[in-house]
Amino acid sequence: MTGTGNWIFDNDIYKDWFRCSVAAGLAIYGIPGAGKTILSSTIVETLMPSTSDTRIGLCYHYCDFSDSSSLDILTILRSLIKQLLVLKTERIDRVGGSAASLIREITENGACESTAKAKQSFNEAIQEFERVYLVIDGLEVLETEDQQQMFNLFRSVQRLEGTTVKIIVTCRQAEALIQQQLQAFFSIKLDARIMRNDIADFVKRSVQERIERRQLILSDHSLQTIIAQKLVNGARDM
Questions:
Q1: Rg of the chain over CA atoms, in angstroms?
Q2: CB environment 141-177: b (16+ within 10 A), e (fewer)
Q3: Which helix (H) or strand (E) holds 150?
Q4: Strand order of the sheet with strand 164-171?
Q5: 3-class state of residue 144 by DSSP
């Protein structure tokens, strides 16, 4: 929904993460259905124009429990590498070592390599930029072993010299292991209070759509505002 999630850009914690001049991570926690994936998409869409600057890279991945291919660590790495190097297509011939090899395999025949080599290649691809934004949505859906691989990857890329890597991760708030591993990250917890504008907009639009479809018939149009307010207040009390 247009405009959904824009509150994040006025959030002080997000702004601290964004303005941080060194490598930094931001963890966004929320219950299922809290809008984490929509929020991730909003952030990606907002960061995308910055990649017109050839010094800035952006890569992202959505972990979907209903799509097993999205949960494979090697597939994730190959996707991230390809996204970064697509931004640098004019420089592919100057990308050295295993990154060049993996790029050819990805673009020509989709072949895989080992996870260890893919991680090395990802590091090399990142170093083609001065700053890289990395967004991973739904981290908790990965198997524990693959989550650990991602944690190791985060630590590795944030130690790279010459490139500032800014990471955003979304996951369920009940995942204690993830919270422990990401305790050095800035963090935001999604709740009704922090998302009140999104909730209000969604409720108002939903009520209006039902009226237009004649799924909700009101004898007094002033009831529309009352119904919407009641629903918004109910959501805030959850």
A1: 21
A2: bbeeebbebbbebbeebbeeeebbbbbbbbbbbeeee
A3: helix 144-158
A4: 56-62, 131-137, 164-171, 24-29, 186-189
A5: helix
Length of the chain measured in residues: 238
pLDDT tens digit string along 210-226?
666 766 556 556 555 55
pTM (2 d.p.): 0.76
**Distance in angstroms (rounded) separating the CA atoms of residues 46 and 28:** 17
The angle at the Cα of 147, spanning 33 to 19, to the nearest 5 degrees, equals: 70
Cross-strand bridge partners of residue 155: none
What region does 104 belong to: left with phi over 0, alpha with psi -120 to 50, or beta?
Answer: alpha
Reference 73, options 114, 109, 124, 128; nearest CA is 114
Question: Measured between alpha carbons, how far is 145 from 66 in angstroms, rounded to an integer?
Answer: 19
Q: Which residues contact 32 (CB under 8 A, 6 or more apart)?
A: 172
pLDDT tens figures, 46-81: 999 999 898 999 999 999 989 998 999 999 998 999
Which amino acid is it at 139? L
Q: What is the rounded CA–CA span in Å between residue 182 and residue 25?
A: 8
